[in-house]
Amino acid sequence: MRVSIVVPVYNEKENLYLLHRGLTEALNDLSYELVFVDDGSTDESLDKLVKLAEQDTDHVRVIELRRNFGQTAAIAAGIDHAHGEVIVLIDADLQNDPADIPMMLEKIKEGYDVVSGWRVKRQDAFLTRTIPSRIANWLISKVTGVPLHDYGCTLKAYRRDVLAGFHLYGEMHRFIPAYAGGVGARIIEVPVKHHPRRFGKAKYGLERTLKVILDLFTVKFITSYANKPIYIFGGTGLALIFGSFFLLGVLILRRLLFEEHLIRSPLLLMTVMLFILGFQTILLGLIAELLVRTYHESQAKPTYTVRRVIGGDRRES
Questions:
Q1: Domain map (residue ranges) of the chain
Q2: What single-letter DSSP state applies at residue 164?
Q3: How far apart are CA 285 and CA 279, in angstroms?
Q4: Does domain 2-224 have CATH number 3.90.550.10?
Q5: Contact between 104 and 153 (Cβ < 8 Å)
Q6: Residue 205: pLDDT band by 50, 70, 90 thresholds?
Q7: Residue 6 CB neighbours (<10 A)
Q8: What local confidence, expressed as pLDDT, does residue 291 receive?
Q9: Is 304 buried (19+), middle (13-18) or exposed (0-12) by CB count in 10 A?
Q10: Cα 239 from chain centre
């Protein structure tokens, strides 16, 4: 089983040699490659990565991006350039421990498709990092239906086939387990070590939690309604139309009981607006249905995924 370790790098010059040593020691008995993706670093990170590639020609590959595209784009680039059957993601800041990787690979061998790290004793600022992360993890678990304690932990191992079929945007890398769960992947969460940052500084703050919450709307739509968008558009449209009929009933009752003029009431305008919005939303759902069918049929993309085929190939003689 060949393993690809994907490491997004942005201004981590002090950590790279130590990380390479830790990965080499942890993976010594395995067939592996180290894919470092330099995400537009402005320090000497790229120079150090080039030296590592020259020193360890058997294992190290460096992908240099033209500018800083963000962690998700760097991870996507690493996955695209990785050759392993199993892909492991790990941060370059030395807070994740490479010694946990063999344990995660054993879980892959047991039949799991995704092994997600859980930083039980997280070594980060409690108010600005840990508490917002716990809130975000709870919310993501409830919305996606894939319960994990630590979506934000980069240290995760994936079978390559569960990563096929979707592209990563924004801060979507943390939602990969949710995507994988949507195609029926077997997912397990394991406790991993987490160390205080020794060199450099954290690249993210409290604002990242807000971005994650916004991306969650996209993830929920893609995982639950991408193949049947009429369910969410049509459901919303019908709710608006029912709301308009309810307000119309209130207007009629007020006219009969209190002799109020319909024209003078602002509820009449709300009734008309709700009906129009509901009808338009249903039409948007129908248009989305046509787009989904065009997408699948033009690319010959199936609406299902096959885990494996058991038995011989039966063909007509």
A1: 2-224, 230-298
A2: T
A3: 10
A4: yes
A5: no
A6: low
A7: 26
A8: 81
A9: exposed
A10: 30
